[in-house]
């Protein structure tokens, strides 16, 4: 059963160890009752006595159908998970003296990442004595940010951390395109073939 991982979280009915419990609920007056009376009330309502807050003094309980309670918890957790936005951060590495072809190649990839809705973290890695060229690295990153101005906004200006100078870019709203699955791409190709 899918609710098994939630089942052990709450004490119900005879598992509750406290002598007195505070009962809260929609159709029950919120008050402190002895455990025996609370269990009797739950039985009268043909429901379970569920310990909601075991650390409170006295523990807080609800009279509710336990399986329904687990279902509501699971549903609430699923809704919260659906509201979360997963953000991917793609890294692009430069050398302090990156040539034009490599720069344009990496710029093209960065545009693709930003259009997919991913953040881009670009950095210049200084190896050995190349740390002497940190001004060149900063100029390179600022040029990179300027070239991506229509796709992204700068989240963090160039910052030297150890042997890396890092800049963070986040996609502008409205520039991201939805990723298509292979099945969706196949459907589009098939419909184009039928039109011809």
Q: How does this model look, in words?
A:
The protein has 196 residues and is an alpha/beta fold. It has 2 domains: 4-80, Ubiquitin-like (UB roll), CATH 3.10.20; 89-171, Translation initiation factor 3 (IF-3), C-terminal domain (Translation Initiation Factor IF3), CATH 3.30.110. 39% of the residues lie in helices and 26% in strands. The strands form 2 sheets. Strands 2-1-4-3 form a 4-stranded mixed sheet. Strands 5-6-8-7 form a 4-stranded mixed sheet, covered by helices on one side. Strand 3 and strand 4 form a beta hairpin.
Quick gist of this model?
The protein has six helices and eight strands, in the order αββαββαβαβαββα. With 196 residues, the chain is of the alpha/beta class. The protein folds into two domains: 4-80, Ubiquitin-like (UB roll); 89-171, Translation initiation factor 3 (IF-3), C-terminal domain (Translation Initiation Factor IF3, 2-Layer Sandwich), CATH 3.30.110.10.
């Amino acid at each position: 059963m899918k609710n098994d991982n939630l089942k052990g979280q709450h004490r119900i009915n005879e598992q509750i160890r406290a002598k007195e419990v505070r009962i809260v609920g929609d159709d029950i007056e919120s008050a402190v009752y002895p455990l025996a009376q609370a269990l009797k009330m739950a039985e009268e309502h043909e429901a379970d006595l569920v310990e909601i807050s075991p650390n409170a003094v006295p523990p807080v309980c609800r009279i509710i159908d336990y399986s329904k309670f687990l279902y509501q918890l699971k549903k609430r957790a699923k809704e919260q998970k659906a509201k979360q936005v997963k953000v991917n951060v793609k890294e692009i590495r430069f050398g302090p003296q990156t040539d034009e072809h490599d720069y344009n190649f990496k710029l093209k990839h960065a545009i693709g990442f930003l259009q997919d809705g991913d953040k881009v973290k670009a950095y210049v890695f200084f190896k050995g004595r190349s740390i002497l060229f940190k001004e060149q690295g900063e100029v390179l990153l600022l040029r990179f940010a300027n070239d991506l101005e229509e796709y992204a906004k700068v989240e963090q200006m160039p910052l030297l951390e150890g042997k890396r100078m890092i800049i963070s870019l986040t996609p502008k709203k409205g520039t991201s395109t939805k990723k298509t699955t292979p099945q969706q791409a196949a459907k589009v190709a098939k419909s184009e073939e039928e039109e011809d």
